[in-house]
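Encode chain A's predicted structure.
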Amino acid sequence: MVALLPEQRPGDDYGMVNAVERWASEAVDACLVAAAHPDQASKLITPLIGALQAALAETPGDPRLREIEAQVRFAEATVHAQKGRNELADMAFRRLLEEYEELGKPLLVADCLNALTVVAERRGDFESGLTLLERCFHLRSQHGASLRKRVRVLMNIGIAQAQLDDHPAALATFRFAEELLSDSYPEVLGIIETNRALIYRGIGEVDQAHALLTSAVSILEPLGSSVHLINAQLELVVEEIRRDALEDAERRLGEMGSMVEAVGVILFIPEKQLVTARLRLARGEYAVAEAAVVGGLEHANDEQRARLLGVRAEIAEASGDFRAALRWTREAHKAQLAVVEARSDLRIAHARARLASDIDRTQRTWMRDELARAQAEVQALSTRLEDHKSLLAAAAHDMNNPLSVVLLLGELASSAPESLEQSAEAIVDAARHMQSMVTTLLQSNRPSSVSASLHMAPTPLKPVLDAAWRRCEPLAAAKAHVLRLDVDAEDPCVEGDANALARVLDNLLSNAIKYTPPGGAIDLKASRQGAHVTVEVLDTGPGLSPDDLERVFLFPQPLSAQPTNGECQHGLGLVNVRRLVKKMGGRVLAENRPQGGARFGVELRASL
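Encoded structure for chain A:
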């Protein structure tokens, strides 16, 4: 039963306190129920919102009431997401994100970002999902979220990276998650091992996949029957079938029957039947395999149905019934199409229904065009918004270096008038660099522009390197660093964007200056090797720890070493470097130098 406004007026302390406590408790209940039982949650949410709005009308702006209302709205948005109403869920979570930012609740902002990720991935927009997850992890790490919550986000980051075929980054993410866990939460560790195995399977390293799945099962088995143990067992059976270890697969599948019944999750019945069908197909028992498929179809969702029908087509082909194989292949394709359509936004589904109604051809054509245009506009606006946020964060970080130069030279000019002309030139150079970044930001905000687009062209390196050296030289001089520039005599030329290259070099040089002790040396080198040009920044700082080497370009986290003069650490600079270089078709590297210090490198295509 949902509590409505008490008889006492909201200003009555006793009555209001009791009502607020009840609403807070019911808001928590709504959030807990929303994901698993959306219909039940809706019955809680509607009257609760009415009661809260009535209270807010009497005491507008009350922070406690606003917080409870936001929590109920979160449950409402979750219901939209669970019901497949992706457009409504996206709008609701974004409004909540702004509300929580205004209330100063960073961990709740992180929860909204995590929820928006699910909506983005249901649309197949894994790049936006990854950006949202990285922001979520950054907030949860900064503001003391629980270990389990931080690791859960890392796991989702790894899965998103794997969806984008960035397998090295995904594996590094899962290793980082394992390091954070240590011996805590063995069930989560088993899930991570299973995900790592699926990545190795995807890149063809089947032995590694089999070893990791075996490890996952051994971790999860002592914890008793669980959804995650069944999932790991099923994947291990698939690997054993691929390795022709059919006896092992048969034994393991037999042991799983009682486990699936104990867990009572109907979702796993089709999965078990699918694996059974594959095993019987491998043994040549076509009739039994066919029966397993039919048994699985009874409880299958659209995605499982598509896979079961695909196996049914394989069974028919293996048994020589090519007409049946063609029929089941067509049915599998229809089921796959149903999966794709089910992931579309509710707005698109409604538009399809209208288009299918009895209207004339002209009206159908007009509505189809309007739908496509509206869909493209919504998607473009959503993508531009996320790109713009990322661009703002990157530009804010990258402007810090030229601003430091301006401040340092301003102080130097005021204390030493004889250096005024030289300082003025350097200040103008730094200001122009910042102006270029501001121009990029303004251009990205125009409706006709493409966010954060690069202007790729043959770019001579020497002028870009000289300008970067001049911008960073005052910062190096302030710490008595020796800053050296070494470029091949032939002045290599690369395929790239001059502004992006400048930001990459500024980040690498400012990092070297930040971590190199006073009196150290920093080298900026460029050389051509065949079809590629390598730009290196070498320092005499403390180098990189093993943990740093694994994730230095992947996560917005500070390095383990401390700056030598109290400079700020954000952890964004090297992530920006990797993204910019990747957009230019290059790659980044980081390693320790044998004589001490670190070497950061950027490899780009040479211009012919």
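Residues 13 and 168 are 58 Å apart (CA to CA).
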